[in-house]
Design goal:
Layout (H helix, E strand, L loop, with lengths): L3 H18 L1 H11 L7 E4 L8 E4 L14 H10 L4 H9 L4 E5 L9 H6 L2 H15 L1 E9 L2 E7 L4 E4 L11 E6 L3 E5 L3 E8 L1 H4 L5 E2 L9 E9 L7 E5 L17 H21 L3 E5 L6 H9 L13 E5 L5 H18 L16 H7 L1 H28 L3 H4 L5 E4 L7 H13 L5 H5 L7 H38 L15
Antiparallel strand pairs: 1-2, 3-15, 4-5, 4-12, 6-7, 7-8, 8-9, 9-11, 10-11, 13-14
Helix pairs in contact: 3-8, 4-6, 8-10
Length: about 500
């Protein structure tokens, strides 16, 4: 195990490197995914006629607004934000759901029971969501009171160091923040926990200043070191793609943030034009109403009667702004978003169609399904590594060394259920697949349902075999009874056959 001083230095080095390099990028992605909050209040930057104002609060517009713009412009900027980035993540997240785990290990050693015990059926959603947004997420598994215990982290809360990020299966060390008050260093032997406290309180007792943007001038103080004896740093990294340079982690959101800003800018321009210039306007030159009531009366009147010299007054009409070009520009930006994100343009409201066949729908979703399959390959490796880690901690030797295991994903493509079942039936009838194998390929069945179906099939086969054996025994008994019954006058042949 590391000494307290070495553990403190390793923890601080890893976390501060993460703070300075990765966290700013991750924070930008997180901000891009959030729903804009209302404008809170206006703040003046100076006094006098040249006073400029700005709106403060959580809302930060993605479009350029002049400092002297009227307040309504800020509210229009907030309303113009039509954020498709959460929809992008949701489309792929909903296409990725683990339904089972295929392993050659004995049933009593199948790590799937630990997956169920850790409620990973539901928690996988957050694990996949973080990996899709940021390009990476982490699952830590440690020995617990009831068996292996899993805990998921986003890269904003955990950093992992690898000697070779592309080759190494396990990290050399990880650091994660816990509750905003603790930093935890994990290696192949133990977990080292540090408190984040005021620097003056820990001076002289081995504390090190945190010196990070998140914790300011606070210091780290050693609390405990707990051995886990797993033999590896028990953290599994999930990536949306396995690239040759392991540190390349982009996710599916970052490449589309610029296009999302273009969509917002087009929507803002359309709202401004709609608010200020979407209707015809009149300009009266040479006449000013004497009161507000007279102005309202003139504005509402179908015919104007003005008691003025016609040579001194000129009435002009200003045409309205054509919004069609804004609408077409928005559609073009959304098509670019759909093409680069590999999702159907109809999901973004562009050229939506209805009443189509399953085959046509499958064709429209081909690009999305291709990319979902690529992501599933990368996530599947992470899940298989997690299953082996479950087995390793539970001392299930065969399952921990099962490199031929495979994750079973839920079927999400646009295919008819009856057509798939018909295809599986024909494969069983032609003896290409056995019934036990075919049942694992039925869409929508979980591992528990598959095992229940197999058990029912075994019971049915056993009952059928028992009935067949009983029928055969009864038939033989009838034949023996018939042979023993002699017709009257019939003689038995001599045993030797002589005279």
């Amino acid at each position: 195990m590391l000494s307290q001083r070495d553990a403190l230095e390793a923890c601080l080095e890893a976390w501060n490197a993460h703070q300075s390099v990765e966290l700013p990028r991750l924070d930008r992605i997180d901000a891009a995914m959030r729903t804009p909050k209302p404008v809170l209040r206006r703040e003046f930057l100076s006094d006098g006629p040249s006073a400029r104002h700005r709106y403060v609060g959580e809302f930060k517009p993605t479009v350029a607004i002049p400092d002297d713009a009227p307040p309504i412009m800020w509210e229009l900027a907030r309303k113009a934000r039509t954020n498709y980035l959460p929809l992008l993540v949701r489309v792929f997240r909903q296409a990725l759901r683990v339904e089972g785990y295929i392993t050659s290990a004995p049933a009593e050693q199948n790590p799937w029971r630990w997956w169920q015990a850790n409620r990973m059926d539901a928690r996988q959603v957050g694990l996949h969501d973080a990996a899709l947004k940021y390009g990476v997420s982490y699952l830590q598994v440690l020995p617990g009171d009831q068996g292996p215990a899993a805990r998921a982290f986003t890269p904003r809360r955990m950093v992992a160091d690898y000697q070779d990020p592309e080759v190494d299966e396990w990290p050399a060390r990880t650091v994660h923040v816990e509750g905003g008050t603790h930093l935890v260093l994990t290696d192949e032997e133990a977990q080292y926990r540090f408190g984040i406290e005021d620097a003056a309180a820990v001076r002289g007792i081995g504390g090190l200043p945190a010196m990070s943007r998140q914790f300011g001038s606070d210091a780290l103080s050693f609390i405990t070191a707990d051995r886990h004896d797993v033999g590896v740093c028990p953290v599994v990294r999930y990536r949306d793609a396995f690239l040759l340079d392991g540190e390349e982690q982009f996710g599916i959101v970052e490449p589309l943030m610029v296009i999302q800003e273009r969509i917002d800018e087009t929507g803002f321009g359309q709202l401004v034009a709609q608010y200020f210039a979407a209707f015809k306007q009149r300009a009266v030159i040479g006449w000013v109403p004497e009161s507000e009531a007279q102005e309202l009366k003139a504005g509402a009147a179908r015919i104007w009667y003005l008691d003025v010299d016609k040579n001194e007054v000129d009435i002009k009409e200003l045409t309205e702004t054509d919004l069609t070009r804004y609408i077409e520009s928005g559609k073009g930006a959304r098509r670019d978003f759909a093409a680069i994100g590999q999702i159907p343009a109809g999901d973004l409201g562009v050229d939506a169609i209805s009443n189509i066949s399953d085959a046509t729908l499958a064709g429209l979703e081909r690009a999305k399904n291709n990319r979902s399959g690529e992501i599933a390959l990368a996530f599947g490796e992470g899940h298989e590594q997690t299953m082996r880690l479950f087995a390793r901690i539970a001392d299930d030797v065969e399952a921990a060394a099962d490199w031929n295991s495979e994750i079973r994903w839920a079927e999400r493509e646009a295919r008819t259920w009856a057509g798939q079942i018909d295809g599986l039936t024909k494969l069983v009838q032609t003896e290409i697949l056995t019934a036990d194998t075919a049942v694992t390929m039925v869409p929508g069945l979980t591992d528990q349902q598959v095992e229940l179906a197999r058990a029912d099939a075994r019971k049915a086969r056993a009952a059928k075999n028992t009935a067949a054996i009983s029928a055969l025994a009864a038939s033989r008994q009838q034949q023996a009874a018939a042979q023993n019954q002699q017709q009257p006058g019939e003689q038995q042949p001599a045993a030797g056959g002589g005279q």
